[in-house]
User: What shape does this take?
Amino acid sequence: MRIAMIGGGYVGLVSGACLADIGHEVCVTETDTRRFTALCEGKMPIYEPGLEVIVERNTKLGRLRFNNHLEGELRDVDAVFLAVGTPSRRGDGHADLTYVFRAAEQIAEVLTRSTVLVTKSTVPVGTGRKLVARMAELRPDLRIDIASNPEFLREGSAIEDFMRPDRVVIGSDSAHARDVLNRIYGALNLPDDSLLFTGIESAELIKYAANAFLALKISFINEIADLCEKVGADVQHVAHGIGLDQRIGPKFLTPGPGYGGSCFPKDTQALMRIAQEAGAPLRLVETVVSVNDARKAGMAGRIIAHCEGSVRGKRIAVLGLTFKPETDDMRDAPSISIVHRLIAEGAQVRAFDPVGAEQAAMLLPETVCYGADIAETVADADVLVIVTEWDAFRAIPAEWLRSTMRGTVVVDLRNIFDKAAMLAAGFTYHSIGRAAGYPAVLTKAPAQAGYREPLALAAH
Assistant: This one.
């Protein structure tokens, strides 16, 4: 089928490339000059494992192409996907729909035939209905069916998530729209129970509700971790124990410095506003947002407390800057508030992230130094802070680390190290939800042999 994808950002580019990879003809329209130029040169404007290979393969096959204008691209298309940004609106937390309606109006101007307009962007409940009315107003001569098809892509695992999804949600009142989307996704050969057809409002709310629930799980285990530290329990044991309950499950029960990224912060904020305006406030979600904001703000204070109340003049090595591994996304990353506070308190910060340093440099103070690799970053450091749990960091041998650092303080905000090994190496080791003097981990840390390659890992 012929598909137009409006927006070449994370969602649009991944979705467009994957749709082409399963056999459709896709044109991705991107108006940002820098991003469009990069795509035309075969350079990925985002870091996502496997994406470059899929884009290159399908551009060579002629199934995927890029453009920076709509004129001529919407002729004879079976569906137009809207995958533009919906950032939090400054001041009130609402999702900013400026780009959505601007794109829809531009689409209406150049359409030459009836089609299906699909919102891939995360939009508040009611947006689909507004699009129905707006398109009918702008193009009463054409049949433009509206559908909601929210994305559930995890950064770092987006290709796998698209090709083998837990579910594909299609919300529309139009039998034609449902049929078109059914044929588009039919190439994935999904089980019948993976394809969910709903009304527009239900599809829009499913996306927000799913992200809010996952954010709740993260905040819950973070608070349990704080309790574990007070009572002498080990949060990893607790998380494993409750995760074995099939009604709960083990995912998103890993404690840390708080959630960030492109989805959870803005989607929980937007859902709060939607609920408040509907007269059905979501107190749990409101509390989750408050708890997470406080946690990220308080992480630097925790580090300072572990440094006997002051970091002035100390060399602090920070490993990991992006909000999660396998992405270069720095949006709402906990590292931002942590590094800013440490610098403000007089610390000398040297940081390393395998792929996120370039993005981080635009958000962090100019005084931050960036190491070329792990070894350069931790050399002669007084304090080591783990912020993002990249696999390369997990394999760092405790003895090597002790011989490389000048100081002995390690603050592990992701619990990636074996506590017993760190203590045996002579470190003053602090982690999340694991009180001093109690068993460290439920399972053994990764083998530390063959570490030379991760040590030399440099930023991409």
Remarks:
- The first strand starts at residue 2 and ends at 6.
- The chain has two domains: 2-198, 239-455.
